[in-house]
Design goal:
The protein has 77 residues and is mainly alpha-helical. It has one domain (17-76). It is built from three helices and two strands. The chain has a two-stranded antiparallel sheet with strand order 1-2. A hairpin with a 2-residue loop joins strand 1 (2-5) and strand 2 (8-11). Helix 1 packs across helix 2 (36-52). The two termini are 34 Å apart.
Length: 77
């Protein structure tokens, strides 16, 4: 499901966490004065930003783009 929240497109997702990680996330949210949702969004945004700076990750993205390009060109024939 995709919704609009404060002029931003959002998508509902279900995430299954081990009990201990869920408890840690809830505690972190409480201590930070944030919702669990906001805490998870912040953590994911930080993880995406960190990976985006990783040269090996960027190289893998380029490999996937090339693989997809080749596949799409073959299918378009």
């Amino acid at each position: 499901m995709i919704a609009c929240y404060h002029d931003t497109m959002t998508k509902n997702m279900t995430v299954r966490l081990p009990d201990e990680l869920a408890a840690d996330t809830e505690a972190l949210a409480r201590v930070s004065g944030k919702s669990v949702n906001e805490t998870i969004k912040d953590a994911l945004a930080d993880a995406v930003a960190a990976r985006s700076r990783d040269p090996k990750f960027k190289a893998r993205i380029r490999e996937i783009i090339e693989e997809d390009r080749e596949l799409l060109e073959r299918l378009a024939k």
